[in-house]
Amino acid sequence: MPKTDLTNDHHVLKDEFAARRYFAKFERITRIMSGVARQMEGELPGSDTAILAGYAEAVAATFRALSLKYLIAGRIVGPARRHLTIDLHESGFPIFQELVSMANDAAQAAGTLAGMAGVEDLKDRMVRRIVGERAVPTDLQFALSQRLYYEALTAGGQFWVQMHPVAEWRGDLPRGRRAYKLHWAVYDSQLNVPVVYILDVEDSGRTALPKDIGRWEQVRAHLMAQSVGGLKLITIAKGFDADFADLHPKGLRRMHLGPMYSSAYTLQSGPIREVLEDARAPAGEDWALAWAIEELEAERVEVEKGWFSETERQVFRLDPFSGVGEDHGATRLRRALILPQRPFQVLAEKDPPGFRNVRKFVVGAGDRVMVYG
Hints:
Blueprint: E1 10-12, H1 16-39, H2 48-69, E2 85-87, H3 96-107, H4 109-114, H5 119-133, H6 138-155, E3 162-172, E4 178-187, E5 194-203, H7 213-225, H8 233-243, E6 247-261, H9 271-279, E7 288-305, E8 310-317, H10 325-328, E9 332-340, H11 341-350, E10 359-363, E11 369-372
Parallel strand pairs: 9-10
Antiparallel strand pairs: 1-2, 3-4, 4-5, 5-6, 6-7, 7-8, 7-9, 10-11
Helix pairs in contact: 1-2, 2-6, 5-6, 9-11
């Protein structure tokens, strides 16, 4: 459910070492996340795993950029002093505004870099300050971190608050139709987690969808407007089906890449809190990342006949015996948990009912992942 009081969930990481441990934790988590996404080959349709892994890598790039932005910022005295703000309840990720601010920085990165000293120049000044004045060059360290931050933004590849739809051609079909896989993503402003959408579509239009500029822009705008966590998949799919007579949605999936739980950084309730507390895991091992994949499939087609035309309408499968069905507005719901070995051992010992149907990806030595469930 969407949160109602967002600011009470915000926490500013003022402790520099806590912030560094936080970024180190997420560097590992996002690396493992990409690997887990690719490991799900065969469990998701077509190229879903590669698409999901690509978005996971974009999340990793966002964390790398933010780690540079805040690397020295907490030591600076004055207006430049700043700290990362995270959502500590049912998220564990940076708040939405952090990504908005980063997007603003990216839009001005080229101009900002043009007015900054180069990396080698800054390093040379730092050495001269240390050797000649025997002083810690905090201001120069900060300048270098910001230089590297803006360079990372110009290199691109980050996960933004909106990742606009991309169309991948999947082949030609009978009756002159074409198959596409559309994918896009958002950073949910209430849940503060990355959310990925994948839509399988059959195109019966005269012009291929990506080449039909007017229709493609309408599709992009429609999909971004409907990318709201509170909307059920069946609502999104039926709305798309109704608004585009020559586009036929055959499958829709929504993937929540979070929340991240950690006793050191987040507040949690229920079994996951007890698991993390009882595990007493060392630094870097005290976490669990939850995934949720909602899936909606078209079951059959019904034809609506008008005076001069016929329109296809998709009928979507809602299985009332699946535990999802009409209440959730999806065909099925898959839940997964990625966690290190020690918290998993405690989870297995406690065996709470709510986690018995959750697939576990357990991270062992060398970040090797074992799958349970």
